[in-house]
Each structure stands twice: as structure tokens, then as C-alpha cells.
Amino acid sequence: MKIYKNIKSIITLVVISMLFNACDEFIQEEAYSDVTSETFINEDNADQLIIGVYTATRAVYRNHGYKFAGTDLFTTKSELFAFSSTNDYTNFVAPETNGVWSDNYNVVAKANTAINRFENQIDWSDINLNNKTYGIAQVRALRALAFFNLVVQYGGVNLDLEEPLSIRNDYVRSSEEETFSLIISELEAAIPDLEDDPEIGRFSVRAAQHLLSEVYLTRAYKSFGSSTDFQTAADLAVQAIGGYDIRTQTFAEVFDYANQVNDEILFAAQWENNAFDEDRNNNKHSLFMYNLFDYPGVSRSNQYGTSGASWMMTPYFYSLFEDNDTREAATIHRVIYADEDSAWEDDVIIPGDTVVYFPKEPLEIAELTDKLDRYWVYQPDEYLWGKPDDIAGVNYTYSSNPYFVNFPIMKKFDDEIYLDENGGARDTFIFRIAETHLLAAEAFLGAGNTESALTHLNRVRERATGVVDHYTTIDLDVILEERALELAGETNRWAVLKRMGKLEERIELYNPHVIDHGAFDAATHLLRPIPTRELALSPGTMEQNPNY
After folding, report:
1. Residue 17: what pLDDT?
2. Is residue 331 part of a domain?
């Protein structure tokens, strides 16, 4: 059962201006009055502090900046010659502020507060000492996750572990090596005190093992990495899998809206369909699509949603699905259906009719002409910006289409509840075991154990195709392709490409805007710029990343 539910209003504590949250079955915020920060928290309601950190973590996975654009799988919904700094790296400069930075540091700040209060303010009775230990373990794991999100983007960051009680102007960045060391020590300290099978929504031992595996795997490629990091990462991934067989449910079942809490999910950012905006505010459904409501027969309240981002999948991504890969049907929409009565030229449209069709393979001209009498058809080489030449005599001419960009939109994040680009109630999966297998494959490959690497890679492929031992050879490109098919839009593709040393190579092969006019420079763009506001707050101590 989820740990966020029935959110109510809550006061802001005077001293630390921090939202505290109480727990019932789903994370619940309660209203309090006539309290101070010193009297508010006791051992009976201390878990509110822990839940506050989970709530802050939810915001991190609602912010999708820097994860997808500028990769091999995602590009912008714009003319090929259009410039987008985060996608083609042209004129990529430091922003004043950035949600990637601020959202993760919000988790860190709330975690620091929770730990300080657990250790120094609350008077724990002997019977509740286990609650103290368990609470601190959860928060340390979540803080480690936030620091990991930061280090893969920015390199070394500030590692302040104290509760924020005053305004400071002397923040200093630690080295990247020091940041990785802290993350590892935090997770290794937390794992013994986490629960194997906690309340749904809380960080488990296996979730921490998954994260720690990825941390060691990422460090293994670094100059300061240990010679044992690949093997350690592999061992942790195996522990996180825990014997679970992903073949017990299909890929489509994993993403079934009614099956959001399922055994493959190790950790998720949870949302809930209730009357409170704080709980029903996911936006994942609005990514990787375009607005469809100007098509005849498609209403504004259609089943697909409203676009909330400027990204689309690259032609390379669509080319990866083989005919026997069941993930395709669960991942993308190749057909857009009408949901209201309408008319177009000589055609009458009723709910359920096809409005747009995106064939997997190009159609011959006779079949294409026939279908264009009944709906628009876009061939696989026509997904980027632009309108194909009209075919004479058909009802659905390309020039009459209201949109300049048409492509199979993402399906696996479809939400049954949404307001526009916001208001979603679907959970966001952060760690799931299919990814753990792919971490294991990469780690075993790095450790020189090709047989075990293939075992984990093939397990993911078998669930999708039914073919046992599909792969007989393995390298990083094979793993990246399988990750694309399995995890597109879920994990941080940019960070994975960077980790493997494949970012520049693959964007120059597969990102159409980069191919046209990309300005990627490894000396600059393998790190993100520190927001200028952070430099201004600590002008004598904070340093910008090179070349920004």
C-alpha cells in the first residue's frame, strides 16, 4: 500500500521553513497549530521528518532536465536547423538557477534536518530506538541518491551534512572522488538498517543495493575508481535482483495502470488520485509527445494527454524494435484514435476511428494512397519536423495537417488522470529489476565475466521476445541498445552515455540536430554548468565548471 495519502494542509515551521509530513498508509500531511520547532517533533511523530524527505524526492523525479535531450534517443520537436542548447550544445551557458540542482539539494537539506533532529532533539525511549535507527537509514539512502544525481551531472559538489539553520556564503565544492566516497559510505551505512520488505514506497535493502551497484559501476570508469569496482557493482546488482524472475510478468503488465505496485519495482516516486494537488501532480505522461487535440476527432480530454515538453524520440530509437519485441506495443502509440465525432473533407469520423497511423515499415504507394483517403499516414522517415509532399486526390493531405511534427508518441507513461501537462497520478518508476539486470550485465562485462554479462542481458531480452540466449556476444553498444528498448524515458540516458564514454560518439551518429549543427565539446559538456545563483551566494568559494 502506498505511503502518501489524503494530503492535508500543513504549517511552515518558523525556524527552518520546512514542510513536515505524517504517515498513515500513504504519505499524509497533517495540520498543526500552536507549536514550535522545539515542541513539534517527538518520537511519536518523528516519522513525519522521514516522509518529508520522500516528498522532496518525488519532486526530483518530476524534473526531467538534463536527462534526455542531447542524447542518441531524444531530440527536439523543431526544424532540423533549429538551435537548442541542451540538445545540440550550441551556446550552452550556465543558467541562473536549475531544478536539477535545487530539487536534489532540497532533498539533502531535509535529510540533514531529519538526521539532526533524530540524533539531537528527539528524546527516544528504549522501545523506539529501532525506529530511530531505521529512520536515519532511510534518510541517508535518500540523501545518497540526491548526491548521486548531482555528481553525475556536475562533478564534485558541496557535501554539507549539517541542518541548514542560517544563511551562508561560504559553500565549497568537494572533489568528484570525495563525492563518490561519501555516497558509497552513506549507502553502506544505511543498508544494514533498512528493511528487506518495507511498507510500499519506502527505500528497501534491495533498492539501496541497486543504487550502490550503479554508484560503484559509475566510479569504475573513473581514474580514481578501484580495480574491484566492476565486480562489486556486479555482486550488488545480483543481490538487488534477489532471485526475482522478471519473466513472471510481461513488460506490458509492468506498465499496466492498475499494476503500478508490483514486484519488479524496487523504488518509485508515488502519486495518488485524490483531491490534493500535491499528490496528483505528476507530469511524466506529457513528455515525448505532441498535442493531438487539433486533429479532427481528437478532443482536449483525449486518452493521450497534453504535451508538456519539447522532446521527441529520434528515428534511431524507433529503428531498434524488432518484429518479435513485445515492448514496442507497450512503449509507443503507432495509431492515434478518435474520441469524438467529427468530419474531415469527405470523411465522417466517429470515436474509435483511426486518425493517424505510423507504420513500422514503409508502405508502397498504392497502399499509402488508399489509407490516406481514411486517415493520415506517416512513414518511418517522416517523423521529424516537416510536411511530406501531398498525394493528389486523397482526403488526408499532408499540407492540411495542423501539425508540422508527427511521430509515434510515448505510451508506457500514459496516465488515466491528468489536467494538462500536469495533474498525473501514475507512479514514476525509479528503480526496477530489469534495469538491475542491465547494470549487472555492464558490471560483469567490465569485470571480464562475459558469460555472466550475457546471462543478465539475455534475461531482459527473453522477457520481451521469448527467445532464449538471443545475444551471443556483448559490448557496451549492445547494452545501450537493450537499455534503450527497455528503459527509454525512465533512466537518465545522458548520464549512462557519459558513464560509458559513449556520449559524443552516439549523439554524432543518431541525434539529427547534433548531426546537423552540434557543438558538443567534451572539455566542456561532460559536466553541467553550476547555476550562477549558487556562485553569487558564495562568491569567494564556489567555482564554476571549466569553460562555462
Report:
1. 33
2. yes
